[in-house]
Amino acid sequence: MLWTDVRPPAGPPMVGRVAEREAIGRLLEAVRDGFSGVLVLNGDAGVGKSRLLEYAAESAQDLSVVRLVGVEAETRLGYAALHRLLRPHLARVPDLPQRQRDALNAVFGLDDAPPSDRHLVALATLTLLSDAATATPMLFLVDDVQWLDRESAETLAFVGRRLYADCLGLLFAGREGTDGLEVFGDLPAMRIEGLADVEAGALLACAVSGHLDQAVAERLVAGTGGNALALRELAENLSPEQLAGVTPLPEPLPVNRELEAHFQRTAALLPAGTRTLLLLMAMTPTDDQAALWRAAGALGLSVRSAAPAVTAGILSRGTTAAFRHPLIRSAVHSAASAEERRGVQAALAATSAPERRAWHLAEATEAPDDEVAAELEAASALAQARGGYSEQALVLTRAAEMTAHPGRRAERYLAAATAHLASGNLPAVQPLLELATPLLTGPVARVRATRLRASVEMFCSRPGEVPAMLLDAVARLGPTDPAASWDLLREAVQAAVIGGRMITGTTPREVARAAAEAWQDSASPAWSPDPLMAAMARSMAYGYAAGAPALAAALARLRDADELHGQDSFSVMISIAGDELWDVEAKREILEKLVRSDRDRGALYGLSLALLALAKVEIWNGRFAAAESFYTESHDYMAATGHFLSGDFHRVLLYAWTGREKELRAAVAEMRALAESQRTGVMDRWAAQALGIFEIGRGRYREALDAQLAMFDGHPVILGDTNLAGMVEAGLRAGDRGAAALAMDRLEERAPLAGTPWALGLLARCRALMADGEEAEPLYQESIAQLEKVPVAVELAWSQLLFGEWLRRRKRRADARVQLRVAYESFASWGAAPFAERARAELLATGETARRRTADTLSDLTPQERHVAALAASGLTNAEIAGQLFVTTSTVEFHLSRVFRKLGITSRKHIASRLDQAGSDD
């Protein structure tokens, strides 16, 4: 077996815990069968979590077992626990794909590479562990996860979410009610309760060598709540007379906090040198014996100092000093006085590497000390260079606490809050802002605080107050720093677009005017988002005629850029700008660049948003299966990064086109609730668009028009263009020609300015709808000709459907059948049920019976399998697919094996032809 930490002594025979043992057994069987398993055990201290981990190790003799124990003193050291876990496997790092290799080398300080996205570090860890398990299946036992540093905990949680067919098992144990356990909150979990009365009695009887009075046993079981460790400690420490019922039992019984106090009392009776050694052990990683004995030497202690603790049952017997139970470590640490801790920290500072010396020195210093604070600040820069943003934040917070000057202290609190934001630990940002804000001096520092507060609001998708907040910051900054002012205004415009008319304290147009007036077209790089955001501001402030050329130029600039470095939400702005110009080709090309960039960087949150935007592009082109794959992949990444939102409202447009009314209305309701609670007006517009399409497909034109009118502004800011053609049709068919004319007027103004085939095709279609007599026919033909030029297949089929309906009403049945048949076949092949049924009914009215399409075998593929199959068909290797999807090659191989079976093929070279034969649109 392979151990990364000291192996604990064997525990007593396992009593009870049938459900827990069965769950562990299922996990082990999954690993033995070539799959993976993850389980989090949580419960009170001493309840038996560590014993269950030991049971798992005893049951996994045929597996490679790896142990890791969280150490409270390491919680601030970014990636410290991960380094201990991976240390036996670091020889495999050179075999990793380059970006993954660079990511691990950077966080472990093995080279000078810049820090990578933390999810790329997690993917590297996943690949490394999966590769290590190829020879022998592995079981990882991680105890006291509440004491893991945040970066390591997030990495291991990510690995747990991405395992599938990797011969790896992860079994975590943590103390319930601790902050560190929240990182694992969405993984499969079991709460470990105290033993049942019968089982607790059996454990107690096994542990007592002499006579045990039945009434005493019942009192002990009831008093401890079945806490296994408390029962064993009582059995060992109560006198024979107490166990026999001759003398009274102690009050209170040692359980939970009392149990910790029991260990503290036991340790307090030991010699002073032994107590100091125990405290040093509690503050040093278990597997870093060299650091332990270096510091012990500085304190004048030797290995002989451990003997009394072994005799007292505090330390286990063996060649390596180790606490008998993790709770004893915590008890020793919490019982020490501040003076005692400072003494140990001073010894650690004197014997530690430079990057750890600063923290130990600060902990050893009682009063504020600017020199120590400066050392901490320098150490925080080292943490940042490795991508340890949580460590950076904690070190900067400690530096602030050690700083005497109020203004400098506030700046360090502010820097710590910024680091917490970079790490994704949003709850930690606000308390630091509250500490910093009253002490900030000068407008620049206050503006930084405001911008940070706004970033938190946007990160949580709450844009309502952000534009006014940032405009106020710009006013306070004044003309002193135009570049900083523009950054604030750019973010304000983005928040105004997302919030729309639901923002408070200002209006989208006021925000846009401020940004448009401040914009100076400097020589920004081609990938910069600035020109696009300035163009959006111009359009919002001065109207479409003024903004459309700038939008077109900005999109063209991004299309020409060799690479993109946009922020996480830049894809949302790209999608909106593309819709404003009906420029699907620019939108697709730029989004695909963003997807590639985010994949390379491991920026999974940005990647998930870009995939959502790209899914809509695929929907407009009739590639519903591809869109479904993108949605699935996006939601997978959201879950992996902890950003997962409940429900499936992102699929609302797909639900509309496919006629899934129940899911559509649930998604619309969720979007409207979110729009109201988070002040995100953009969601209302997306919901209205989906409802309008669905109702038009079903022929419920009044309902469609009502949905569109609710979002139709007399002076629209943005996000109105893609709804215009549907509003024209719904208004005419509902008998509200005035509403149709409103939409038509705006389309007549905007489509020629956009000048794209999509825009001109919709304009021609709506002119045909509005036309009287035979002049409609060439307009329908023009619409079809324009829409054939660009990848908007659903719009093309929609124009063919309307043209066919017009021809049928003119009694030109043969001509109508041509258009209706093409429209029906297209809609039916994509699964656009409402429009397919509408086209089929029209075909029936011409005298032709339309064959209902049946599902092909490709529909048996899950979205993940379909996506993997498409990537394999494109020529990517399994390793390349794994890197692109942030999974392991074993998982890719598993999915491909299912694809082969379902498609009836035996080689990947047949995938592409089989997908085509099955009618795939991928």
UniProtKB/TrEMBL annotation:
InterPro entries with a match to the protein in the record: AAA_16, P-loop_NTPase, Sig_transdc_resp-reg_C-effctor, Tscrpt_reg_LuxR_C, WH-like_DNA-bd_sf
Tagged with keyword Glycoprotein: no
User: Record's superkingdom?
Assistant: Bacteria
Work out whether the entry's keyword set contains Protein transport: no
All residue ranges annotated as the HTH luxR-type domain in the record:
854-919
Question: Which Pfam families is this protein grouped with?
Answer: AAA_16, GerE
**Keywords on this record?**
ATP-binding, Nucleotide-binding
Q: Which PANTHER family match?
A: TESTICULAR SOLUBLE ADENYLYL CYCLASE, TRANSCRIPTIONAL ACTIVATOR DOMAIN
Record protein name field: LuxR family transcriptional regulator
